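Subgroup meeting minutes
Present: P.N., E.W., G.H.
Scribe: E.W.

1. P.N. recapped why we're keeping a running log of single-chain structure predictions: easier to compare across weeks, and new members can see raw inputs and outputs side by side.
2. G.H. added today's entry (199 aa).
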Amino acid sequence: MNHPPSDIAFTPAVKSIQSRKGSRQIYERKERGGGWQTKITTELASFINGLDMFYFGTANRLGQPYIQYRGGAPGFLRVLDESTLGFADFRGNRQYISLGNLSENPQAFIFLMDYMNSKRIKIWGTARVVEDDSELLERLRDENYPGKIERAITFTITTWDVNCPQHIHRRYPHEHVENLVRTLQDRIIELEAKLGTCR
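Output recorded in log:
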């Protein structure tokens, strides 16, 4: 029997609660209609290429979860092929919690957030630490970022789904706000100059 991709999240315990709370029929219909995606679409790739951050979830062998913020220039999380994402890992605080977790449990999770456009996507899969692939490291390099890449992390997608946009607080990148403020300041200077000629 083929299991729908959403079974990675909709365990028997989850389905039992969905049944009790009245939402199981909705998700059963979605599962029959194809359900969640298992490959990177052009839409997902475009969404990823525009992001400058994401949240990376791992867990140790006991199941204790850990969430890590990852940030960089837009597109630093790269699409490597139709099933694989990758990103460069730089020296940080040297706690190595994500690396330790992945050494004993490859199950991982990526949570993509676009605060400005109120959109979020959740991705389940497995992650792997790569330390000896110079070609991959070069592929993930950002020429404008001077930090030394210590390793790469690749993420093989099992399934993904678009999350509800409800309750997402809009937040705007610094560059976006800076450009808006500069435009307004230029307009103020222009209007003040016009007022000056009217006196």
